[in-house]
Protein backbone atom coordinates (compact mmCIF):
# COMPACT_ATOMS: atom_id res chain seq x y z
CA UNK A 1 0.00 0.00 0.00
CA UNK A 2 1.26 3.44 -0.90
CA UNK A 3 2.53 5.57 1.99
CA UNK A 4 0.18 8.34 0.90
CA UNK A 5 -2.72 6.89 -1.10
CA UNK A 6 -4.85 9.00 -3.43
CA UNK A 7 -8.16 7.95 -1.85
CA UNK A 8 -9.38 6.82 1.53
CA UNK A 9 -12.38 4.57 1.04
CA UNK A 10 -14.59 4.80 4.13
CA UNK A 11 -17.01 2.01 5.03
CA UNK A 12 -18.97 1.79 8.27
CA UNK A 13 -20.47 -1.65 8.87
CA UNK A 14 -23.21 -2.71 11.25
CA UNK A 15 -24.71 -6.15 10.70
CA UNK A 16 -24.28 -6.07 6.92
CA UNK A 17 -23.10 -9.70 6.61
CA UNK A 18 -25.67 -10.61 3.97
CA UNK A 19 -24.30 -8.20 1.35
CA UNK A 20 -20.91 -7.25 2.78
CA UNK A 21 -18.73 -9.61 0.75
CA UNK A 22 -20.07 -8.16 -2.52
CA UNK A 23 -19.72 -4.57 -1.25
CA UNK A 24 -16.08 -5.01 -0.21
CA UNK A 25 -15.30 -6.98 -3.36
CA UNK A 26 -16.64 -4.18 -5.56
CA UNK A 27 -14.19 -1.76 -3.94
CA UNK A 28 -11.24 -4.13 -4.24
CA UNK A 29 -11.82 -4.57 -7.99
CA UNK A 30 -11.85 -0.87 -8.89
CA UNK A 31 -9.87 0.09 -11.99
CA UNK A 32 -8.35 2.93 -9.93
CA UNK A 33 -6.26 1.04 -7.38
CA UNK A 34 -4.37 3.71 -5.39
CA UNK A 35 -6.45 3.75 -2.22
CA UNK A 36 -6.54 2.70 1.42
CA UNK A 37 -9.72 1.00 2.56
CA UNK A 38 -10.80 1.80 6.12
CA UNK A 39 -13.60 -0.40 7.45
CA UNK A 40 -15.16 0.29 10.85
CA UNK A 41 -17.12 -2.63 12.21
CA UNK A 42 -19.50 -0.80 14.55
CA UNK A 43 -20.17 -3.66 16.96
CA UNK A 44 -21.76 -6.09 14.49
CA UNK A 45 -23.18 -9.33 15.88
CA UNK A 46 -23.88 -11.17 12.61
CA UNK A 47 -20.39 -12.26 11.55
CA UNK A 48 -19.54 -9.13 9.58
CA UNK A 49 -16.19 -8.99 11.39
CA UNK A 50 -15.16 -12.37 9.96
CA UNK A 51 -15.96 -11.21 6.41
CA UNK A 52 -13.89 -8.07 6.93
CA UNK A 53 -10.99 -10.10 8.36
CA UNK A 54 -11.02 -12.50 5.42
CA UNK A 55 -10.73 -9.65 2.91
CA UNK A 56 -8.09 -7.85 4.98
CA UNK A 57 -5.94 -10.99 5.07
CA UNK A 58 -5.61 -10.94 1.29
CA UNK A 59 -5.55 -7.18 0.59
CA UNK A 60 -3.06 -4.94 2.44
CA UNK A 61 -5.02 -1.84 1.43
CA UNK A 62 -7.74 -2.81 3.92
CA UNK A 63 -7.42 -1.49 7.47
CA UNK A 64 -10.12 -2.94 9.76
CA UNK A 65 -11.24 -1.06 12.86
CA UNK A 66 -13.22 -3.42 15.10
CA UNK A 67 -14.92 -1.93 18.17
CA UNK A 68 -18.14 -1.62 20.16
CA UNK A 69 -21.23 -0.01 18.72
CA UNK A 70 -21.13 3.80 18.73
CA UNK A 71 -23.46 4.62 15.85
CA UNK A 72 -23.04 5.75 12.25
CA UNK A 73 -22.08 9.38 12.89
CA UNK A 74 -19.31 8.42 15.31
CA UNK A 75 -18.04 5.86 12.80
CA UNK A 76 -18.01 8.31 9.90
CA UNK A 77 -16.20 10.95 11.93
CA UNK A 78 -13.61 8.40 13.04
CA UNK A 79 -13.05 7.47 9.40
CA UNK A 80 -12.55 11.14 8.48
CA UNK A 81 -10.10 11.57 11.36
CA UNK A 82 -8.05 8.51 10.40
CA UNK A 83 -8.02 9.11 6.64
CA UNK A 84 -4.53 9.50 5.13
CA UNK A 85 -5.58 10.45 1.61
CA UNK A 86 -6.60 13.84 0.19
CA UNK A 87 -9.81 12.33 -1.21
CA UNK A 88 -12.46 10.58 0.87
CA UNK A 89 -14.87 8.12 -0.80
CA UNK A 90 -17.98 6.92 1.00
CA UNK A 91 -19.33 3.41 0.67
CA UNK A 92 -22.05 1.38 2.40
CA UNK A 93 -21.98 -2.27 3.36
CA UNK A 94 -24.96 -3.30 1.24
CA UNK A 95 -24.23 -1.47 -2.03
CA UNK A 96 -22.02 -2.29 -5.02
CA UNK A 97 -19.56 -0.01 -6.85
CA UNK A 98 -19.14 -0.22 -10.60
CA UNK A 99 -15.46 -0.93 -11.42
CA UNK A 100 -14.83 2.52 -12.92
CA UNK A 101 -16.47 4.55 -10.14
CA UNK A 102 -13.30 5.85 -8.45
CA UNK A 103 -11.54 6.56 -11.75
CA UNK A 104 -14.43 8.71 -12.97
CA UNK A 105 -14.69 10.70 -9.73
CA UNK A 106 -10.94 11.25 -9.37
CA UNK A 107 -10.82 12.52 -12.95
CA UNK A 108 -13.67 14.96 -12.29
CA UNK A 109 -12.08 16.38 -9.15
CA UNK A 110 -8.71 16.69 -10.91
CA UNK A 111 -10.31 18.63 -13.74
CA UNK A 112 -12.41 20.86 -11.45
CA UNK A 113 -10.23 22.22 -8.67
CA UNK A 114 -13.08 24.30 -7.24
CA UNK A 115 -15.30 21.26 -6.80
CA UNK A 116 -15.10 19.76 -3.32
CA UNK A 117 -17.63 16.95 -3.54
CA UNK A 118 -18.87 14.76 -6.38
CA UNK A 119 -21.48 12.02 -6.32
CA UNK A 120 -22.89 9.80 -9.02
CA UNK A 121 -26.21 8.52 -10.21
CA UNK A 122 -27.24 5.10 -8.96
CA UNK A 123 -28.85 1.95 -10.26
CA UNK A 124 -31.52 0.94 -7.77
CA UNK A 125 -31.60 -2.76 -6.84
CA UNK A 126 -33.54 -4.82 -4.33
CA UNK A 127 -32.21 -7.13 -1.62
CA UNK A 128 -31.83 -9.90 -4.21
CA UNK A 129 -29.76 -7.76 -6.63
CA UNK A 130 -32.71 -7.32 -9.01
CA UNK A 131 -32.96 -3.94 -10.80
CA UNK A 132 -35.86 -1.77 -9.65
CA UNK A 133 -36.22 0.26 -12.82
CA UNK A 134 -36.24 4.05 -12.89
CA UNK A 135 -34.76 6.23 -10.17
CA UNK A 136 -31.34 7.02 -8.80
CA UNK A 137 -30.84 10.24 -10.76
CA UNK A 138 -29.61 13.34 -8.94
CA UNK A 139 -29.05 16.99 -10.00
CA UNK A 140 -25.79 17.44 -11.90
CA UNK A 141 -24.54 21.00 -11.52
CA UNK A 142 -23.86 23.14 -8.47
CA UNK A 143 -26.68 25.48 -9.45
CA UNK A 144 -29.13 22.60 -9.69
CA UNK A 145 -27.97 21.21 -6.35
CA UNK A 146 -28.15 24.63 -4.68
CA UNK A 147 -31.77 24.95 -5.78
CA UNK A 148 -32.59 21.82 -3.75
CA UNK A 149 -30.67 22.67 -0.60
CA UNK A 150 -33.86 23.17 1.38
CA UNK A 151 -35.35 19.72 0.81
CA UNK A 152 -32.85 17.48 -0.99
CA UNK A 153 -31.97 14.81 -1.67
CA UNK A 154 -28.76 16.07 -3.24
CA UNK A 155 -26.59 12.96 -3.40
CA UNK A 156 -26.72 9.22 -3.16
CA UNK A 157 -24.66 9.24 0.03
CA UNK A 158 -22.55 6.08 -0.55
CA UNK A 159 -21.59 7.38 -4.00
CA UNK A 160 -19.93 10.55 -2.70
CA UNK A 161 -16.23 11.43 -3.01
CA UNK A 162 -15.04 14.59 -1.26
CA UNK A 163 -11.83 16.41 -0.40
CA UNK A 164 -10.77 15.19 3.05
CA UNK A 165 -9.52 18.51 4.41
CA UNK A 166 -12.77 20.15 3.41
CA UNK A 167 -14.73 17.59 5.45
CA UNK A 168 -12.47 18.23 8.44
CA UNK A 169 -12.72 22.01 8.10
CA UNK A 170 -16.50 21.76 8.02
CA UNK A 171 -16.60 19.72 11.21
CA UNK A 172 -17.61 16.38 9.75
CA UNK A 173 -20.99 14.87 10.50
CA UNK A 174 -23.12 16.23 13.36
CA UNK A 175 -24.95 13.72 15.54
CA UNK A 176 -27.78 16.21 16.20
CA UNK A 177 -29.24 15.46 12.78
CA UNK A 178 -30.09 11.80 13.17
CA UNK A 179 -31.01 10.06 9.92
CA UNK A 180 -30.11 13.15 7.86
CA UNK A 181 -26.54 13.79 9.02
CA UNK A 182 -25.46 13.76 5.39
CA UNK A 183 -27.94 16.48 4.34
CA UNK A 184 -26.77 18.74 7.17
CA UNK A 185 -23.19 18.21 5.99
CA UNK A 186 -24.09 19.15 2.40
CA UNK A 187 -25.65 22.37 3.70
CA UNK A 188 -22.48 23.28 5.56
CA UNK A 189 -20.31 22.36 2.56
CA UNK A 190 -22.43 24.41 0.15
CA UNK A 191 -21.03 27.66 1.50
CA UNK A 192 -17.43 26.51 1.08
CA UNK A 193 -17.23 24.71 -2.27
CA UNK A 194 -19.02 23.74 -5.44
CA UNK A 195 -20.72 20.37 -5.78
CA UNK A 196 -21.61 18.05 -8.64
CA UNK A 197 -23.01 14.66 -9.61
CA UNK A 198 -21.84 12.53 -12.52
CA UNK A 199 -24.64 11.36 -14.84
CA UNK A 200 -23.41 7.77 -14.73
CA UNK A 201 -24.84 4.95 -12.62
CA UNK A 202 -21.56 4.12 -10.89
CA UNK A 203 -23.09 2.53 -7.81
CA UNK A 204 -25.79 -0.10 -7.37
CA UNK A 205 -27.85 1.23 -4.47
CA UNK A 206 -29.92 -1.25 -2.53
CA UNK A 207 -33.52 -0.42 -1.60
CA UNK A 208 -35.46 -2.72 0.72
CA UNK A 209 -37.98 -2.66 3.59
CA UNK A 210 -36.54 -1.68 6.93
CA UNK A 211 -34.04 0.91 5.71
CA UNK A 212 -33.45 3.91 7.96
CA UNK A 213 -35.13 6.26 5.47
CA UNK A 214 -38.31 4.19 5.71
CA UNK A 215 -38.27 3.35 9.42
CA UNK A 216 -37.54 6.92 10.54
CA UNK A 217 -39.20 8.98 7.81
CA UNK A 218 -40.85 11.44 10.21
CA UNK A 219 -37.75 12.16 12.28
CA UNK A 220 -35.68 12.40 9.11
CA UNK A 221 -38.09 14.91 7.54
CA UNK A 222 -38.16 17.00 10.73
CA UNK A 223 -34.39 17.07 11.00
CA UNK A 224 -34.00 18.05 7.34
CA UNK A 225 -36.36 20.98 7.94
CA UNK A 226 -34.50 22.06 11.08
CA UNK A 227 -31.13 21.74 9.35
CA UNK A 228 -32.36 24.19 6.71
CA UNK A 229 -33.52 26.67 9.34
CA UNK A 230 -30.09 26.45 11.01
CA UNK A 231 -28.43 26.94 7.61
CA UNK A 232 -30.47 30.12 7.02
CA UNK A 233 -29.28 31.53 10.35
CA UNK A 234 -25.64 30.71 9.58
CA UNK A 235 -25.97 32.38 6.18
CA UNK A 236 -27.18 35.52 7.95
CA UNK A 237 -24.10 35.46 10.17
CA UNK A 238 -26.03 34.38 13.25
CA UNK A 239 -24.93 31.67 15.69
CA UNK A 240 -26.07 28.13 14.87
CA UNK A 241 -29.03 27.40 17.19
CA UNK A 242 -28.24 23.66 17.08
CA UNK A 243 -24.90 22.98 18.74
CA UNK A 244 -23.14 19.82 17.54
CA UNK A 245 -24.18 16.85 19.62
CA UNK A 246 -27.33 18.39 21.06
CA UNK A 247 -30.74 16.83 20.56
CA UNK A 248 -33.19 18.62 18.30
CA UNK A 249 -36.15 19.66 20.50
CA UNK A 250 -39.85 19.19 19.86
CA UNK A 251 -41.68 21.43 17.39
CA UNK A 252 -43.16 23.80 20.05
CA UNK A 253 -39.72 24.29 21.60
CA UNK A 254 -38.20 25.40 18.28
CA UNK A 255 -39.94 28.79 18.52
CA UNK A 256 -37.82 29.82 21.48
CA UNK A 257 -34.62 28.13 20.34
CA UNK A 258 -34.69 29.91 16.97
CA UNK A 259 -36.31 33.07 18.39
CA UNK A 260 -39.11 32.86 15.82
CA UNK A 261 -42.70 32.67 17.10
CA UNK A 262 -44.76 30.25 15.00
CA UNK A 263 -41.77 28.37 13.61
CA UNK A 264 -42.87 25.02 15.04
CA UNK A 265 -46.37 25.38 13.60
CA UNK A 266 -44.99 26.37 10.20
CA UNK A 267 -42.62 23.41 10.12
CA UNK A 268 -45.42 21.06 11.12
CA UNK A 269 -47.37 22.13 8.05
CA UNK A 270 -44.30 21.67 5.87
CA UNK A 271 -43.75 18.18 7.29
CA UNK A 272 -47.31 17.16 6.49
CA UNK A 273 -46.78 18.25 2.89
CA UNK A 274 -43.43 16.47 2.71
CA UNK A 275 -44.87 13.22 4.09
CA UNK A 276 -48.06 13.34 2.03
CA UNK A 277 -46.82 10.59 -0.30
CA UNK A 278 -45.58 8.37 2.51
CA UNK A 279 -48.84 6.94 3.90
CA UNK A 280 -47.04 4.41 6.10
CA UNK A 281 -45.22 7.27 7.84
CA UNK A 282 -48.41 9.30 8.27
CA UNK A 283 -50.22 6.25 9.64
CA UNK A 284 -47.41 5.60 12.11
CA UNK A 285 -45.15 8.19 13.73
CA UNK A 286 -46.65 10.99 11.66
CA UNK A 287 -50.27 10.40 12.64
CA UNK A 288 -50.16 12.64 15.71
CA UNK A 289 -48.31 15.29 13.71
CA UNK A 290 -51.03 15.27 11.04
CA UNK A 291 -53.90 15.39 13.53
CA UNK A 292 -52.29 18.24 15.48
CA UNK A 293 -51.89 20.12 12.20
CA UNK A 294 -55.53 19.57 11.29
CA UNK A 295 -56.78 20.74 14.70
CA UNK A 296 -54.70 23.92 14.46
CA UNK A 297 -56.31 24.87 11.14
CA UNK A 298 -59.59 26.75 10.84
CA UNK A 299 -62.34 24.49 9.50
CA UNK A 300 -62.40 26.39 6.21
CA UNK A 301 -58.77 25.47 5.50
CA UNK A 302 -59.06 21.74 6.17
CA UNK A 303 -60.70 20.65 2.91
CA UNK A 304 -57.45 19.93 0.94
CA UNK A 305 -56.37 17.46 3.63
CA UNK A 306 -59.24 15.08 2.97
CA UNK A 307 -57.09 13.64 0.20
CA UNK A 308 -54.67 12.37 2.85
CA UNK A 309 -57.46 10.47 4.61
CA UNK A 310 -58.36 8.88 1.28
CA UNK A 311 -54.74 8.01 0.55
CA UNK A 312 -54.36 6.36 3.95
CA UNK A 313 -57.47 4.27 3.33
CA UNK A 314 -56.35 3.20 -0.15
CA UNK A 315 -53.06 1.96 1.27
CA UNK A 316 -54.78 -0.14 3.92
CA UNK A 317 -54.37 2.18 6.90
CA UNK A 318 -58.09 2.22 7.66
CA UNK A 319 -57.80 3.03 11.37
CA UNK A 320 -55.53 5.98 10.73
CA UNK A 321 -57.75 7.17 7.87
CA UNK A 322 -60.76 7.09 10.18
CA UNK A 323 -59.02 9.08 12.92
CA UNK A 324 -57.84 11.66 10.39
CA UNK A 325 -61.35 11.93 8.91
CA UNK A 326 -62.87 12.47 12.35
CA UNK A 327 -60.33 15.23 13.03
CA UNK A 328 -61.12 16.86 9.70
CA UNK A 329 -64.82 16.76 10.57
CA UNK A 330 -64.11 18.36 13.92
CA UNK A 331 -65.27 15.34 15.90
Compact summary:
It holds the Pfam family Glycos_transf_2. The chain is α/β, with parallel strands linked by helices and 331 residues long.
Characterization of this structure:
The longest helix has 19 residues. α1 links the parallel β1 and β2. Helix content is 44%, strand content 17%. The chain has two domains: 202 residues, Spore Coat Polysaccharide Biosynthesis Protein SpsA, Chain A (Alpha-Beta Complex); 114 residues, no CATH class. Belongs to the glycosyltransferase 2 family. This is Glycosyltransferase. Pfam families: Glycos_transf_2.
Which terms would index this structure?
eight-stranded mixed sheet; Glycosyltransf_2; 44% helix; 331 residues; Spore Coat Polysaccharide Biosynthesis Protein SpsA, Chain A; alpha/beta; globular; glycosyltransferase activity
Protein topology:
Elements: E1 7-13, H1 17-28, E2 35-42, H2 48-58, E3 62-67, H3 72-82, E4 87-92, E5 96-97, H4 101-111, E6 115-125, H5 142-146, E7 161-163, H6 164-170, H7 181-190, E8 194-206, H8 212-215, H9 217-235, H10 251-257, H11 263-274, H12 279-283, H13 286-296, H14 306-314, H15 318-328
Parallel strand pairs: 1-2, 1-4, 2-3, 6-8
Antiparallel strand pairs: 4-7, 5-8, 6-7
Helix pairs in contact: 1-2, 7-9, 9-11, 10-11, 11-13, 13-15, 14-15
Amino acid sequence: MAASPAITVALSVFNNARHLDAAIGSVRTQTFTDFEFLIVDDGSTDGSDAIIAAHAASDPRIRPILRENRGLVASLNQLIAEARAPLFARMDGDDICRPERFARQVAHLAAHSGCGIVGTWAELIDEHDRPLGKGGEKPLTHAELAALLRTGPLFCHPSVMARTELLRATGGYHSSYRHCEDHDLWLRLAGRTTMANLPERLIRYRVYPGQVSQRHAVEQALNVAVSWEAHVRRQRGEPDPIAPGTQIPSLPELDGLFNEPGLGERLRGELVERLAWQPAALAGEGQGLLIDHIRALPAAQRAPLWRLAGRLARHGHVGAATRVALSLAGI
